[in-house]
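User: My instructor asked us to take a sequence, write out its structure as tokens, and then describe one feature of it. I'm not sure where to start. Here is the sequence I was given:
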Amino acid sequence: MMRLVSLGLVLVLAVSAVGASASGAEPRAREEQSADKGGSKKRLSDAQIRKILIDESIAAYDGNCPCPYSRARNGSRCGRRSAYDREGGAAPLCFPADVTAEMVQAYRDEHLDLEE
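Assistant: Let's start with the prediction itself. The structure tokens for your sequence are:
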């Protein structure tokens, strides 16, 4: 089960990265992190990177219930109907604990220009 979830997370991240690269769009969170008043760039914390990865993962999900705390079309909380709780299929990142240290490091390696 854990292997399936891990594989799903890698696939979601890969799809997210390809979609963002292909569209040329930068996620708002990344833009906000890189823009500061002094012009100097600061290193993002692990928590900030985890939030970026979670936001990108949720944005890449096609349905309306990626996470248990998401809202369904009728306004109810998704809970156990979410993709996060269903076996098989998509496995979006929903919580900071879902983002591994390796994912954080991979993000840092890929986005060195944001952290100088």
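For the description part of your assignment, you could build on this observation: The first helix runs from residue 2 to 23. Try explaining in your own words what that tells you about the chain.
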